[in-house]
Design a protein that fits this description.
alpha/beta, Rossmann fold, N-(1-d-carboxylethyl)-l-norvaline Dehydrogenase, domain 2, Single alpha-helices involved in coiled-coils or other helix-helix interfaces, 3 domains, two-stranded antiparallel ribbon, about 55% helix, globular, binds 6-phosphogluconic acid
Length: about 475
């Protein structure tokens, strides 16, 4: 009997998705490459290790794997994003036939996805770019799935995607055909950028409580649990308090973890894409740069000797800190929703942001009550500040944000994401900015022209005194 679905790549995500599909009754072929000495019999071992994978067929030879699948073939690729995907597709392509489908489920760059789709299209092979969020647990028990590609590619994949998608709080599936081309991988990339700034904001609140408010890990965990029981509920808050409370015989585990944060490409790719098209993504920039600088550990250690840091008592309450945190999150979400809206418009994708909030309200890493609150609001909004309720909320929170940032500044505690959020808000609500001077400088040294107030459409080249 031929199998319904093939999965390539038996790393943590590939094997977890395979187990989820198997539990949901799909017949599977599993493939993992063979590398003598390091990766041998990987797929076979999994079929022996997990009860639900007993019926799955295991392969190390790609042609046998492909031949084991019913037609049109549906093959999920779950391998490290980048050249490995291209190499794999180059090997697979001659083995496939018109009408077959490749579902690329890694964290691919959306432009790579579009390039691969065009190449496969020449051979009439379907491809779906699938954003998958939720880590190992999501892959195993229900993930958030963002699909991009043609309606026919989606239709072939849909029955398989439905069975492994998480359920949203309203009982729907956390699965959406986002749009054509690389749109699925694009929104997954932006999801990760939101994730970066969400993580950074929690880390800053933690550091503020620990360093300036003198709270210990359990007390901080208690504060975060209370926040999680409120409108600030999120998966990331939930896991953070669990992390802070985790102890073993050597004490708190967090004390033994080096302060150097790793990263893959998606945060940086969002920033770069946004910057190339004029999207002011200061929130992911602040989170990303904090990670970059965290990796300069040796320099930080040396330079810390020369920096005097005063530590003075601060009179900030947990509630004021919570307001600064909430403010930061609203700005973070809207910055990225605006970016998606702008790209969707430019590329004709017609991404429905409310649907995206629904897909992100379950299964994925950034799931939170805020996404459910934003669901009815995001479509058609130019900016958060055009939503009256959000505008009033931000306005009410602003004094607390300033108080928290001032206290941190006084004590040389860098709260990069909270500051970035406040500066974004201040810039966006400033009627008259200093950009007139920047225009004039460009025109003075480079004859780039300026737009005058009374003729905003026409460039004027001013005869500056030289
Ligand atoms: C998810 C995550 C996942 C990502 C990790 C690590 O949605 O399940 O976003 O795709 O790979 O969170 O990302 P970084 O290594 O860039 O921090």
């Amino acid at each position: 009997m031929k199998k319904q679905l093939g999965i390539v790549g038996m790393g943590v995500m590939g094997r977890s998705l395979a187990r989820n599909w198997a539990k949901n009754g799909h017949s599977l072929s599993l493939y993992n490459r063979r590398i003598s000495g390091s990766e041998e019999g990987v797929a076979l071992a999994l079929t022996q290790q997990f009860e639900e994978l007993r019926q799955a067929a295991a392969y190390e030879e790609l042609s046998d794997f492909v031949a084991s699948l019913e037609q049109p073939r549906k093959i999920v690729l779950m391998v490290t994003a980048g050249p490995a995907v291209d190499e794999l597709i180059a090997e697979l392509r001659p083995l496939l036939q018109p009408g077959d489908l490749i579902i690329e489920a890694g964290n691919a760059h959306y432009l790579d996805t579009e390039r691969r789709m065009s190449m496969l299209n020449v051979h009439k092979i379907n491809m779906l770019g699938l954003g998958v969020s939720g880590g190992e647990q999501g892959a195993l028990n229900g993930a958030s799935l963002m699909a991009g590609g043609t309606p026919s590619a989606y239709a072939l994949a849909e029955p398989f995607l439905k069975s492994i998608a998480a359920k949203t709080p309203s009982g729907q599936l956390a699965l959406k055909h986002i749009g054509p081309g690389g749109s699925g991988h694009f929104v997954k990339m932006v999801h990760n950028a939101i994730e970066y700034a969400e993580m950074q904001a929690i880390a800053e609140a933690f550091e503020f409580m620990y360093t300036l408010m003198g709270l210990d890990y359990d007390a901080i965990a208690q504060v975060l649990e209370a926040w999680n029981g409120s409108s600030q509920q999120s998966y990331l808050l939930e896991i953070t308090s669990r992390i802070l409370r985790t102890k073993n015989e050597q004490g708190y585990v967090i004390d033994r973890i080096a302060d150097r944060a790793a990263y893959n490409q998606t945060g940086a790719a969002t920033l770069v894409e946004g910057a190339l098209w004029g999207a002011p993504l200061s929130m992911v920039a602040s989170a990303l740069f904090a990670r970059f600088i965290s990796n300069k550990k040796a320099q930080r250690q040396e330079l810390a000797q020369y920096a005097e840091r005063s530590l003075e008592a601060v009179s900030v309450s947990p509630d004021e800190l919570k307001q600064a945190y909430a403010f930061t999150r609203i700005i973070n979400h809207y910055q990225h929703f605006e970016m998606i809206a702008a790209f969707s418009e430019r590329l004709g994708w017609k991404v429905n942001l409310s649907d995206l909030c629904a897909v992100w309200s379950s299964g994925c890493i950034i799931r939170s009550t805020l996404l459910q609150q934003l669901m009815p609001k995001v479509n058609g909004q130019l900016s958060v500040l055009f939503d009256k309720a959000a505008r009033e909320e931000l306005f009410a929170q602003k004094p607390s944000v300033k108080k928290v940032i001032s206290a941190a500044m006084e004590n040389d505690l860098p709260l990069s994401s909270m500051q970035a959020a406040l500066i974004y808000y201040q810039q966006l609500t400033q009627e008259q900015s200093s950009a007139a001077l920047v225009q004039a400088q460009r025109d003075y040294f480079g004859a780039h022209g300026v737009y005058l107030k009374q003729s905003a459409e026409n460039l004027t080249f001013y005869p500056w005194p030289k």
